[in-house]
Specification:
The chain is of the alpha/beta class. Helices cover about 40% and strands about 20% of the residues. It has twelve helices and 14 strands. A hairpin with a 5-residue loop joins strand 13 (about 270-275) and strand 14 (about 280-285). The longest helix has 19 residues, at about 15-30.
Length: about 375
């Protein structure tokens, strides 16, 4: 298979981790007789520095003409003083909107080998007498609506200047993300937890209503509704109760980061952003980490696992995706650790060595 990939390295550690993901993809191409054609593009702070805009038109055009997009990370301290609509992070919102990517899939899987990296007690993440680690959650986050895309502005009040961001959801926006969640649950343990704030927010009351209506088409799936504050607490108290979590843009942003930390490190979590077709954008959940950029310290495994998701969701190459996931697990099983998941300093590896080791394990 010949695959055209738009690659957006971005800022901070983004170029380092995408380089390792491409290294693994090249090994996949060699072993499974595929060809990946990469087109490197600008977005985020790097684009601001180069052309004065966080999301150049060329980047959007090339992404739309590609089969999928691989993204590193955007943002950093360097651009923190820019106005909100000029910041590097606006490139992410722009890409999602322009590419029609409304569903963000963020799996939070705790590898057995990383049980010691989980900050929770072992009895919380393990099952019964066997003591086997069982923590496998998928957060389905709505990506192009909600408070991030609602009306924004300033107004004068008796207490001084005030800022506002409007939370708004339409029925179809909720329905289509609910369908993604229920379809996912049918392939897993047939349970969906919908997270909202329906006791306070009108947008959440509509959310709960539409998710409930959608659930009627999936009688085999158990639907549970939780308020966001309770869901955040339950993720720490008993994360094994969850299978598929579906929620809005801001709540999903927060909950998926919380889920990432109970699986050992945000450096391990991949994500896929999908629309109505097989086209998708794939990126690690973590940010640009400018404090360790260029030091060969970043964990590339989230990005490498993101390209495994790409092979599975965009190209139906399940064997190749499985091969990458097995390779990551094999490296962890041999005791190798990047700094974020290394507790004792033994077998400490850097970004490039991690990529080399994982690529060498692809069979």
């Amino acid at each position: 298979m010949n695959i055209k990939l738009a690659v957006i390295p971005g800022d901070g550690i983004g170029p380092e981790v995408t380089e390792q993901a491409q290294k693994v993809l090249d090994k996949i191409a060699n072993v499974y007789n595929h060809k990946f054609e990469y087109k490197t593009l600008l977005a985020g702070g790097a684009a601001i520095d180069a052309v004065g805009a966080c999301l150049p038109d060329e980047t959007i055009t090339v992404c739309k003409a590609s089969d999928a997009v691989l993204l590193g990370a955007v943002g950093g301290w360097k651009w923190d003083t820019l106005p909100g609509d000029k910041r590097p992070e606006m490139a992410l919102l722009g890409l999602r909107k322009e590419l029609g990517l409304f569903a963000n899939i963020r799996p939070a899987l705790l590898f057995d080998e990383l049980a010691d990296a989980c900050p929770l007690k072992k009895e919380i993440i393990s099952s019964g007498a066997s003591g086997k680690v069982e923590l496998d959650i998928v957060v389905i986050r709505e990506l192009t609506g909600g408070i991030y895309f609602g009306e924004k502005g300033y107004k004068d009040t008796p207490l001084g200047k005030a800022a506002y961001d409007v939370e708004i959801y339409a029925e179809e926006e909720v329905r289509r993300i609910a369908v993604v969640a229920f379809d996912m649950a049918m392939k897993r343990s047939k349970k969906v937890t919908s997270v909202d704030k329906a006791n306070v927010l009108e947008s959440s009351r509509l959310w709960r209503q539409v998710v409930g209506e959608t659930a009627k088409n999936y009688p085999e799936v158990k639907l549970e509704n939780l308020y966001i504050d309770n869901a955040a607490m339950q993720l720490v108290r008993n994360p094994r109760q969850f299978d598929v979590i579906v929620t809005g843009n801001m709540f999903g942003d927060i909950l998926s980061d919380e889920a990432s930390m109970i699986t050992g490190s945000i450096g391990m979590l991949p994500s896929a952003s999908l629309g109505k077709s097989s086209f998708g954008m794939y990126e690690p959940v973590h940010g640009s980490a400018p404090d360790i950029a260029g030091q060969d310290k970043a964990n590339p495994m989230a990005t490498i696992l993101s390209v495994a998701m790409m092979l599975r969701y965009s190209f139906a190459l399940s064997n190749e995706a499985d091969a990458i996931e097995r390779a990551v697990k094999a490296v962890l099983s041999k005791g190798f650790r990047t700094g974020d998941i290394c507790s004792d300093g033994k077998n400490l590896i850097g970004t490039k060595e991690a990529g080399d080791l994982i690529a060498s394990e692809v069979r």
